[in-house]
């Protein structure tokens, strides 16, 4: 059956199903709903009624964009080019909305760095760019 791509918002249940399928932590539906509603752009892939992949962009809509949560259901990974197609749709969105000065950012899960590099991302740090950073939630609570 064909894979269909859409930029319609997905449900929290669909989002959490995908997160669970790729082994990521699963937030409450309320948290997921808020996250999805505040996303700038979401591209999802369906086979029939089943969601098989998704990726989203968060940011300010002009200067800062972060590509997040690129997920393809394990049964569909490395077979149909779904991850690449979702990223292409995201790039199309960014070409329309990003200013030339925009920062277009992403975070690779462990072992996925080469996938993003093949798609044109620059892996930090470089000679001119420092490392990316992340604040663990547990550390945040100490402030
Ligand atoms: C990473 C992921 C999104 C890729 O999507 P996919 O649909 O499986 O990949 P595609 O079929 O589009 O593969 C496209 C290309 O990327 C390559 N690729 C996929 N995963 C790769 C990896 N981990 N390292 C290097 N190359 C990779 C494929 O070999 C293929 O190369 P080709 O075009 O030269 O044949 C998907 O495997 C996934 O959801 N993984 C689990 C969740 C995850 O880690 N997401 C990334 C979050 S940062």
What does this structure look like?
It is a single chain. The protein is of the alpha+beta class. The protein has a single domain (3-140), classed as Aminopeptidase, CATH 3.40.630.30. Helices cover 31% and strands 24% of the residues. It is built from five helices and five strands. The chain has helices spanning 12-21, 29-37, 82-97, 113-118, 137-140, and strands spanning 3-6, 41-47, 50-59, 64-72, 103-106. Strands 1-2-3-4-5 form a five-stranded mixed β-sheet. α1 (12-21) packs across α2 (29-37). The longest helix has 16 residues, at 82-97. The termini are far apart. The mean pLDDT is 97. The chain binds coenzyme A. The site of coenzyme A (COA) has 18 residues, from β4, α3 and α4. It comes from Sodalis ligni. This is Acetyltransferase (GNAT) family protein. Keywords: Transferase.
- Structure summary, number of beta strands: 5
- Order of strands side by side in the largest beta sheet? 1-2-3-4-5
- Ligands bound, unique: coenzyme A
What is the strand content?
15-25%
**Which structural class matches the secondary elements?**
alpha+beta
How many helices? The count is: 5
Distance between the termini: 51 Å
What's the overall geometry? globular
Which spans have pLDDT < 50 for at least 5 consecutive residues? none
Question: What is the CATH class name?
Answer: Alpha Beta
| CATH fourth-tier homologous superfamily | Gcn5-related N-acetyltransferase (GNAT)
Mean pLDDT, nearest integer? Answer: 97
Radius of gyration: 16 Å
């Amino acid at each position: 059956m064909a894979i269909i791509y859409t930029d319609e918002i997905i449900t929290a249940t669909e989002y959490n199903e995908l997160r669970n399928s790729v082994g990521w932590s699963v937030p409450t539906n309320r948290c997921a709903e808020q996250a999805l509603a505040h996303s700038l752009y979401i591209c999802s892939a369906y086979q029939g009624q089943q969601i098989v992949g998704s990726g989203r962009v968060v940011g300010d809509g002009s200067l800062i964009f972060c590509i997040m949560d690129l997920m393809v259901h394990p049964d569909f990974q490395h077979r149909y080019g779904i991850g690449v197609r979702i990223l292409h749709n995201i790039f199309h969105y960014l070409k329309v909305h990003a200013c030339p000065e925009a920062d277009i950012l992403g975070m690779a899960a462990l072992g996925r760095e080469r996938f993003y590099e093949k798609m044109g991302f620059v892996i930090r740090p470089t000679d001119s760019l420092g490392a990316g950073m992340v604040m663990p939630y547990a550390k945040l609570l100490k402030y």
